[in-house]
Structure to design on (157 residues):
């Protein structure tokens, strides 16, 4: 049985379009799940409530971009979420570095680190400062491992 070259070309194009559409849909759904997650929401809310950091970005409006799925700094498992969230305002942009852990008692996420680093190098600790309460005493030992220095060797485990 012979199949014409034209039919094979059509089949190849159809398969390529179908595969590309599936990949795009999967990417969109993964990004949507990240944006809806509690650890992502807590970090963005903390940024929105920090007046100095928002002023440094030139926000509002604050634009939260999709995380880079291939970035090795983004690691999420059942108990710890380390996420690097790209954000921009009208003045500049930067990354919102977050580390959250799951509390087994409440089954909810708690931020351990939330730091905004602007492109210009300025950093804002979103867990402490004039607008936010200090880190609770029971979490200070956990946050001391992350001393606010966003050096890549300290960021990744």
């Amino acid at each position: 049985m012979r199949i014409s070259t034209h039919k094979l070309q059509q089949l190849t194009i159809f398969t390529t379009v179908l595969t590309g559409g599936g990949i795009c849909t999967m990417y969109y759904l993964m990004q949507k799940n990240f944006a809806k997650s509690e650890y992502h929401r807590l970090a963005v809310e903390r940024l929105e409530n920090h007046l100095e950091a928002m002023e440094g970005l030139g926000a509002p409006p604050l634009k939260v971009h999709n995380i880079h799925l291939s970035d090795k700094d983004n690691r999420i498992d059942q108990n710890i979420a380390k996420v690097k969230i790209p954000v921009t305002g009208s003045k500049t942009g930067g990354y919102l570095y977050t580390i959250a852990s799951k509390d087994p008692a409440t089954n909810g996420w708690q931020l351990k680190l939330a730091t905004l680093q602007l492109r210009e190098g300025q950093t804002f600790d979103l867990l402490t400062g004039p607008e936010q309460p200090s880190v609770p005493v029971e979490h200070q030992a956990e946050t001391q491992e992350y001393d606010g220095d966003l050096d890549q060797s300290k960021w990744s485990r």
